[in-house]
Amino acid sequence: MRPIRLGMVGGGQGAFIGGVHRIAARMDGMFTLVAGALSSDPERARASGEDLGLAPERTYMTWDGMARAEATRPDGIEAVAIVTPNHLHAGPAVAFLERGIHVICDKPLAATAEQAAAIAAAARASGAMFFLTHNYPGTPMVREARAMVAAGALGALRLVEVEYVQDWLARPVSNKQADWRTDPARSGAGALGDIGTHAWNLARFVSGLAPEALAAEVSTLVPGRRVDDNVSAHLRFAGGARGRLWASQVAVGHENGLRLRLAGSDGGLDWSQEDPNRLWFTPIGEPRRLLTRGGAGTGPAAQGRVPAGHPEGYLEAFATIYADIARAIRTGDRAACPVAGIEDGLEGMRFIAACLASSAAGGAWVAMH
Amino acid sequence: MRPIRLGMVGGGQGAFIGGVHRIAARMDGMFTLVAGALSSDPERARASGEDLGLAPERTYMTWDGMARAEATRPDGIEAVAIVTPNHLHAGPAVAFLERGIHVICDKPLAATAEQAAAIAAAARASGAMFFLTHNYPGTPMVREARAMVAAGALGALRLVEVEYVQDWLARPVSNKQADWRTDPARSGAGALGDIGTHAWNLARFVSGLAPEALAAEVSTLVPGRRVDDNVSAHLRFAGGARGRLWASQVAVGHENGLRLRLAGSDGGLDWSQEDPNRLWFTPIGEPRRLLTRGGAGTGPAAQGRVPAGHPEGYLEAFATIYADIARAIRTGDRAACPVAGIEDGLEGMRFIAACLASSAAGGAWVAMH
Amino acid sequence: MRPIRLGMVGGGQGAFIGGVHRIAARMDGMFTLVAGALSSDPERARASGEDLGLAPERTYMTWDGMARAEATRPDGIEAVAIVTPNHLHAGPAVAFLERGIHVICDKPLAATAEQAAAIAAAARASGAMFFLTHNYPGTPMVREARAMVAAGALGALRLVEVEYVQDWLARPVSNKQADWRTDPARSGAGALGDIGTHAWNLARFVSGLAPEALAAEVSTLVPGRRVDDNVSAHLRFAGGARGRLWASQVAVGHENGLRLRLAGSDGGLDWSQEDPNRLWFTPIGEPRRLLTRGGAGTGPAAQGRVPAGHPEGYLEAFATIYADIARAIRTGDRAACPVAGIEDGLEGMRFIAACLASSAAGGAWVAMH
Amino acid sequence: MRPIRLGMVGGGQGAFIGGVHRIAARMDGMFTLVAGALSSDPERARASGEDLGLAPERTYMTWDGMARAEATRPDGIEAVAIVTPNHLHAGPAVAFLERGIHVICDKPLAATAEQAAAIAAAARASGAMFFLTHNYPGTPMVREARAMVAAGALGALRLVEVEYVQDWLARPVSNKQADWRTDPARSGAGALGDIGTHAWNLARFVSGLAPEALAAEVSTLVPGRRVDDNVSAHLRFAGGARGRLWASQVAVGHENGLRLRLAGSDGGLDWSQEDPNRLWFTPIGEPRRLLTRGGAGTGPAAQGRVPAGHPEGYLEAFATIYADIARAIRTGDRAACPVAGIEDGLEGMRFIAACLASSAAGGAWVAMH
């Protein structure tokens, strides 16, 4: 498969989610980033493009200019990732969709219903595809959970309990990430939009249940804050299932506690994103089973990039080793590089030999130096 | 930083660790894979090269040919990753080192002491660098642990307890991964070489203690197996610390249980690779503290690619979303793609609006459809 | 302190909570059970009294008769434990309170508001004391949590999240325990009364917050059931704190999941009754700390009957050993008793000696038989 | 069953294990403590006897005097619990056994081989029974584990991994508990005797394997200590199973970490005493299952005094409530007693009513005061 030519709107220096999108696009080798309108600040836009190795002529100052230029290049981008604050999704989304360029948009869709409607109209009219990056459904055990529900492993669903609780806004905070999220004009809503929609999406993705009605309590618990920071909703689903959704940014003791519990007539499931490789499954009347990514008793949806028992951080640790190596090669400074070298390798061989020698000698102590 | 031109020896279709090296090399955009001698089977070598988008003239049939050809190209590889079984490390390692090409070699160093010595001689003579990919030291919380030990957080070290226990060889197994690992000629040792060296390296990396002597019991517990599958060693370190290393492939109930515990005069640490984002720290006489990657109370070594609370699988879930998108774009089949789209985005907006409306109406139930 | 003479109403053969009350009364040697009206069935009342070693003349057929007789005996009971189904609390409670006998009543107070009012009137008029056995506040770490909240460790409370979720009624069940609990006439309410009141009491006990209002969804999720089996309520407390309470008997995957989370301006707490010896405490901006019963960093409220690290099951295991011994002594059958004996003791001594001998001989293997 | 008349040697004021034995003896109502030689200090012996409500004439100053006197009383003790330091077991054990009184002796058997031999001779010669109180085999999930092993659930055993690790002696400590345990004359051995024998006993009890040989490393890691504080032994069992035992009192981060892991050809088990109600069971090739005391999928051995989901601390919390009540009754101070009363009961009823009212009113907020 030929890699897809990708552009990016937002994601300049200091941004968080833009970098995440870039790593994600790179990991499986299926995209090549070739263009960007990375910041509304021209200086930052230019510097950010240089950091990413973009050609100067494809480092744009505005998404508008980028949409026009890329749409006419023979090697123009095929897809664009929009990673700006919520109130700045609609403009670029419409511009690229109208030009037949696929849009990959960060969630939530927009800051207002009007913006959302504009995107929807463009998406429906366009021949290009629209993707909203709710990322948690990309987790193998979430997909396994959905597959199990769909296959009837829980019987008729009765309960949907989802919570997404954090504490990073438990104190008044001011930084790039916090500022736009707590500004009603830029975010539209607080915890509700930022993480409530993730929780909602996860519950819907896994359960497959159609929502009927909700009853909610939306609160602002940190004095002086201008958006909500704690939301709870009772949920009713088609078919009679009941549920709850809790989103909080002031729940001290929780870093990023997204958890989904489902119960039905025949079984229950429990998944937490802070422990993403595991999924608890309880067939009614039987002991709880701990399913693991790619582990015993799981199906194709639960497979990841590495075998069972290697948590997904395994790949990142490996990538860190590679990044260290790259830096050593480019700087020539081997000594500063923490990656194991030939002496470590020889010591490993001595360790093996010493174990074999000791064991052969009836467990006698064998010197190691 | 300009990406480094990378070659690979081994890692053809059906291999495990080769794919891991490629994802790791790609994740941070610091390497470009441009050449490979991917299999000793010519047909598989060719097909594997095509899968990876290598130029046909840089898809080599032998590592020997690759070393000679790449060393003379102006755009030849700067580094090579060797991901063959243990007994096939020495040949390519020496060949590339002699030509001044940096070597990234999978662990353990070799299958025999002779092979290891050959690599060491070449490494010492070469102007190029040699790296052994013990990956666990790439984990942020492992680096944090090392930094804490070095800073004296544990006082004088007394205990080093490391275990790496698996169960995938608890039954006689035959497949590509198991076959060479259980063949003495190709692996050199069983659990001892495959995972014992990882445990050893981890203990050394974090503790910084110099080994003095060991007393071991090396066993083969599955009848008919020709290599060890369970090893335990008592360890003595310089300065009087005591320890134990356990490596097992027959410990039923453990998938990939690498765990390190250290205790000193002033504190203790506990880390498990199946839960890599967490590190338990106990200052003596105080409650245990749960440190998390990038979380409160951690230093620069503990930082990863994403903020605290997002386990490292977060990036992989995101990458899976991107891979799904790429497939949808290339195949044109949006319906088969599980990534959220415009309707999900609109529903998320309706969810936000319904919560706000219900809360404003004193918690009244609000219809969702 | 002289033990208190105790009577019991309910708790005959086949009952659950009566046996719990008796063990609890016995554990610290502060009560002596001397009288009982143990069942409304005369035959069972008589047999149950005999099992418990009660004098025949103090084994009553009715609580009414017991109240009258015991009130006039010079050695009459000083307190009575009422462990009948909810709708049978009021009668005996009033009868004993009117006679100046202290009442220890199982929760919830009653099945109807009228019954509750009757008990309240009698309690207020009586010189005797009235106790409601919400047992979870007896847990050391719950008391520690309350003490921490009271001492301001969490700052101003903002969030109270309590859940009590079980799955034992996820299927239609019929047995002595289930039958009265699912009969509206005998229980008054289902999950709401049986476990919702426990959750409520726990939240109130620890937080100390005064309730202002609630908004609830009370559901029956198992078809054909006549009482509620799933309840969720949004809570508002004086001072602005928000909360939620969830009680469910159909949450498959949960045995007895009572959990309380509190968050304030300065910290958070998290306690689960299935892991009662532990309490998570997060001072805002610091790593989570795992407090343990009697462990480092805890105060007097956290002390239990045994030192830190011995979970409370420690005492019960010890008691089981004693019960086994008692049976061996009474039956004379030592062989059937699993408690260690002299040979085990000698083997333990040989184990010690062998370790010392091996270590002294440089870790040589020492035979054990 | 008529309660057994029990005496106690040791266990006076300030002792730990004596109190544990008394609670254990009392819990199921099968013993009555009627005599004691509670301390070698006459004043403390007298005061301790008074605390326990012993008759003055059965509060003895020496175990010797107690043995002689009780053996001739018609209502003399039937059994004696010996809870003195290790070096003081043999004297009373022999004295009571010779008089036909059953002996319940704390572990380890003795401080020296000579003392052990003396007890063994008396036990074999006596018509009375001898019990050694290794308490962990009294835990339901330990008994379940043994039953599973015996029933073949693990197939042929291959691995026995047991550890008992603490940190309370990681610093030089001086108190009543620490002093005799770190005095070679009184304890015989350090970690080895105090907790190593517990670990040994547990491994033997559950596995049923006969030991063949061991190779050990016995260390003293705290400078100046006169007994061992860290022990590791490699173990060989009949039939070829391999194992390891680790006992440490200096493993900072562990309170009372007794853990047993077993693996065989068909499955694995994992139990930790700090989480005693749970037992992990992995049938080979299947997901891990979390068995709970009395829970789904367990047999008769796993049953405890309370239903599944109520950890064993449940009973102690209940007993604490009762103890609080007893104090309130004896002191007359109801206000100081934290046990719920009539107002709490009424509030619980209001909570139930408010939930029902709110739910009936479509989830409207209902005031609670």
What characteristics describe this protein?
homotetramer; 369 residues; alpha/beta; Rossmann fold; Dihydrodipicolinate Reductase, domain 2; 3 domains; eight-stranded mixed β-sheet; five-stranded parallel β-sheet; 11 helices; 35% helix; 23% strand; globular
Textual characterization of the structure:
Four copies of one chain form a homotetramer. The model of chain A has no long low-confidence stretch (mean pLDDT 92). Chain A has eleven helices and 14 strands. In chain A, helix 6 (140-150) crosses helix 9. Chain A has three domains: 4-132, NAD(P)-binding Rossmann-like Domain (Rossmann fold, 3-Layer(aba) Sandwich); 137-302, Dihydrodipicolinate Reductase, domain 2 (2-Layer Sandwich), CATH 3.30.360.10; 339-369. Chain A is α/β, with parallel strands linked by helices. The B-D interface holds B 154, 158-159, 161, 167, 170-171, 215, 217, 219, 221, 230, 232, 234, 240-242, 244, 246, 248, 250-254, 261, 263-270, 280-282, 284-285, 288, 362-365 and D 154, 158-159, 161, 167, 170-171, 215, 217, 219, 221, 230, 232, 234, 240-242, 244, 246, 248, 250-254, 261, 263-270, 280-282, 284-285, 288, 362-365.
